[in-house]
């Protein structure tokens, strides 16, 4: 019994001793003067505030282990049992890079080696004209997201898709830049369909003007695609009926682009094939309305651009009397093995749980680029620096400062100014 009590006493004394050491060290040693802080490899006088810099690494000259808590913006060091010198490293610079629609290729050069998050939104197809009045498109561009490691000065190329043109009475409506197909009017009265929306894509080399269709023979250079939607079709009541039947229509993908619908006045509709990861109208290009002579009401929207573009009505469809349609949306793509943490979102679409085609359906659609939401209007791209490669960062000479405690949690205090000499 005495041995048992003695053991309990020893344990309690050990815990109390550790607590007292921690309290003493916390009280006497939590001071920024005990660390050397570098921002962009320049010695500075204080730990930068949260949001002003990205933590890179801590380097100590002993076996002490240092880690950084980004949520509380604080440093945790343990395994300290001897005099130790430590340096803290941060990066301060632009971390978010936005790319709006320009109608041409844009490029990005990595400012530092590290992991970057790529986000892209495909473009929406154009509105229709029905009985002389504008009808808003109810199909939207897709969203793709993934991370990639880039070395400093690596370059990638961004092709942001353009919105399809509104339907034009008496002429075709042009599809958006980067693969949107052209729409057409009914060649009869006052109905016209919109052009398809262009895809937004990112490539690691530049071929031609940067449009996705140029990469058909070099698909390995394509990093990511967000599909564009079909232009608006001219039979909204039938479209609504098809959507109620659970069909995935005409928006940009996702691993599948939304399917087009072939419509007859009296005989209902037939749902077309989805664009996907291996087929569609064409690689990087949505289908356009045919320009052949038509003897009755046959307005046709343009297909959306995508990894594979959405299809429009064919000559056989027209010969068989299909007078109206929605065209297909383009498929998205995240299958490049350089990408990690990747996913696609698309409007009211079919889902996938496979890593290379992971797709989540959403009912969110915004004109402002919003993560995990489909896109109205032009496409968009955003690149965000997530973390910096610590091994590519220069280690500065240790300052002659010492840390003499077992555990230290150092929180930034903006009201206190620390001077390093």
N to C succession of SSEs: HEEEEEEEEEEEEEEEHEEHEEEEEEE
- What fraction of residues sit in β-strands? 25-35%
What is the overall pLDDT average? 82
Query: What is the overall number of helices?
Result: 3
Q: Order the strands across the largest sheet as they lie in space.
A: 7-23-9-12-19-20
Largest sheet: 6 strands, mixed
Residues in helix, %: under 10%
Q: Please, what is the oligomeric state?
A: single chain
The computed structural class is mainly beta
Low-confidence stretches: 9-31, 400-421
Shape: elongated
What is the rounded Rg? 29 Å
Question: Termini distance?
Answer: 58 Å
Q: Tally of extended strands?
A: 24
Description:
The protein is mainly β and 421 residues long. The protein has helices at residues 2-29, 236-244, 315-319; strands spanning 36-39, 42-44, 54-60, 65-69, 74-78, 86-91, 96-99, 105-109, 114-121, 128-130, 133-135, 143-150, 155-159, 200-203, 222-226, 261-263, 269-271, 324-326, 340-347, 359-362, 365-366, 374-375, 380-388, 408-411. A hairpin with a 2-residue loop joins strand 1 (36-39) and strand 2 (42-44). It is elongated. The model is unreliable at 9-31 and 400-421 (pLDDT under 50).
